[in-house]
């Protein structure tokens, strides 16, 4: 019995230490977080997990607030925490949006045409290569590639090299006429993927040039590519600048290069765009996934998904 009591005492001490660590990590955030903890003391651990994952203070606070309304307030402290965790996961999941845009069957008789847009260096070309390989070899779809990137040195050559390995048609198109001709050549395909030039989100003139080119054909859908290694504010500015394209989905890359994927939840929340693809490495085509909501939430929360679940 003494051993059992000592074991329970050690567990209680470890819980207290974990809570103190969580409070210290929250102390680095704004006064809003301190107020949140004062009002909902049982939220300390969950809140710390969300913040560590990279979810913004504003969104983390809103999630806790919403979840705390639903949780069982009559229970003891441990049951309260368990109840809160359940409702936090439910609330997070309700804010996650996914869409399997590329892997669906094409029964329309005309190709789906998808342009990948976004800032420089986010991995658009590599993502297109991965997707082309996935669609060609796993989904047995007929795929062709177009590059309209005439800014980056070697951009077309890079895409062409990937296409050659896979035995796919790949052509450059640097004017509206070129693009329409290329699409006419590819009318027997299931999917046509278009690589666009990456530009600073502050360069409105260059963004407008791409927009005019893509608008040459009404069938072209736009898909915003963002790197999770970027700061949240940069991602928000880029999403805002490229919103003129009316993107159908968002693609997040480089999720393997950061432990703070919580910012994905902020982007989905702010711009109401479903996630179609997640790129999590350099390998073609292995490091590309079409996530479901549960998988995406696991990526977003990282270690926090175990701590909260």
Helix content: 40-55%
CA-atom Rg in angstroms = 23 Å
Uncertain segments: 15-20
- CATH architecture label name of the largest domain: 3-Layer(aba) Sandwich
Provide a count of the helices.
Answer: 13
Number of domains: 2
| Largest beta-sheet characterization | 8 strands, mixed
Number of strands: 8
Which CATH class of the largest domain is shown?
A: Alpha Beta
Structural class: alpha/beta
Shape by Cα distribution: elongated
Give a verbal description of the structure.
The chain is 51% helix and 13% strand. With 309 residues, it is α/β, with parallel strands linked by helices. It has two domains: 2-97, no CATH class; 112-291, P-loop containing nucleotide triphosphate hydrolases (Rossmann fold, 3-Layer(aba) Sandwich), CATH 3.40.50.300. Strands 3-2-4-1-5-6-7-8 form an eight-stranded mixed β-sheet, with helices on both faces. Helix 10 (232-241) links the parallel strand 5 (220-227) and strand 6. Helix 3 packs antiparallel against helix 4. The radius of gyration is 23 Å and the shape is elongated. Residues 15-20 have low confidence and may be disordered.
């Amino acid at each position: 019995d003494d051993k059992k009591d000592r074991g329970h005492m050690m567990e209680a001490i470890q819980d207290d230490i974990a809570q103190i660590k969580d409070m210290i990590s929250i102390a680095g955030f704004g006064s809003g977080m301190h107020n949140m903890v004062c009002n909902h003391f049982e939220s300390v651990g969950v809140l710390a997990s969300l913040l560590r994952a990279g979810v913004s203070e504003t969104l983390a606070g809103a999630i806790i607030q919403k979840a705390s309304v639903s949780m069982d307030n009559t229970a003891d402290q441990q049951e309260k925490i368990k109840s809160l965790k359940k409702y936090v996961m439910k609330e997070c999941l309700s804010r996650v949006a996914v869409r399997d845009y590329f892997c669906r069957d094409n029964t329309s008789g005309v190709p789906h045409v998808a342009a990948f847009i976004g800032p420089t260096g986010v991995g658009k070309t590599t993502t297109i290569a991965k997707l082309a390989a996935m669609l060609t070899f796993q989904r047995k779809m007929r795929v062709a590639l177009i590059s309209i990137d005439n800014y980056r040195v070697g951009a077309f050559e890079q895409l062409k090299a990937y296409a050659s390995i896979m035995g796919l048609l790949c052509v450059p198109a640097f004017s509206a006429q070129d693009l329409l001709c290329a699409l006419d050549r590819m009318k027997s395909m299931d999917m046509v993927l278009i690589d666009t030039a990456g530009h600073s989100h502050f360069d409105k003139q260059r963004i407008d040039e791409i927009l005019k080119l893509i608008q040459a054909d009404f069938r072209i859908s736009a898909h915003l590519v963002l790197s999770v290694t970027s700061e949240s504010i940069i991602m928000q500015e880029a999403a805002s600048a490229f919103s003129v394209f009316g993107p159908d989905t968002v693609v997040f890359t480089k999720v393997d290069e950061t432990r703070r994927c919580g910012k994905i939840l902020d982007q989905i929340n702010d711009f109401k765009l479903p996630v179609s693809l997640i790129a999590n490495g350099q390998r073609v085509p292995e490091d590309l996934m079409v996530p479901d909501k549960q998988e995406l939430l696991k990526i977003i929360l990282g270690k926090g998904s175990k701590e909260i679940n």
